[in-house]
Amino acid sequence: MIKAGTFANLLKLHDLNLGHNQIEMIQEDLFQNLPGLQKLDLSNNQLTMIQTRTFHNLPQLFRLKLEGNQINYNAFNNLPKLQILDLRSNQMSAIIPSAFYLLPSLRTIKLEDNPWWAFSSAVSGIIVISGAIFLAVW
């Protein structure tokens, strides 16, 4: 686990790669005070859950990579500039209707290689709301 405050006040940090580190848990306030962060890579760790406020204070986040974890619940909100969300190869089996409503800039969602059993109206709603979104589901 990475302790809260580890990245505090790195105001000019744009790109943070924490991939392939066997991280199991992220404290909710780990990414506080990173106003310029645009790309965050947490791929290929051992994350099972993302808490609701984990990415809350990242107003410039453009790309979020969570590929290759064990995430089974999606808690992504208040990311006004997020355009690319990579959730490939996790344990996601369903998408709740409100999953992506607070991601107004979202253009690409990568969802392949998950054990899907249900797609709710969340996905069809995204397609209707923003025809530019590419859903990579195979």
Automatic annotation (TrEMBL):
InterPro entries: Dev_Immune_Receptor, Leu-rich_rpt, Leu-rich_rpt_typical-subtyp, LRR_dom_sf
One Pfam assignment: LRR_8
Keywords: Leucine-rich repeat, Membrane, Repeat, Signal, Transmembrane, Transmembrane helix
Transmembrane helix listed as a keyword: yes
This protein's GO CC annotations: extracellular matrix; extracellular space
Highest taxon listed in the record's lineage: Eukaryota
Transmembrane segments: 116-137
Membrane in keyword set: yes
Identification of the protein by name: Leucine-rich repeat-containing protein 15-like
Gene (UniProt): LOC109469048
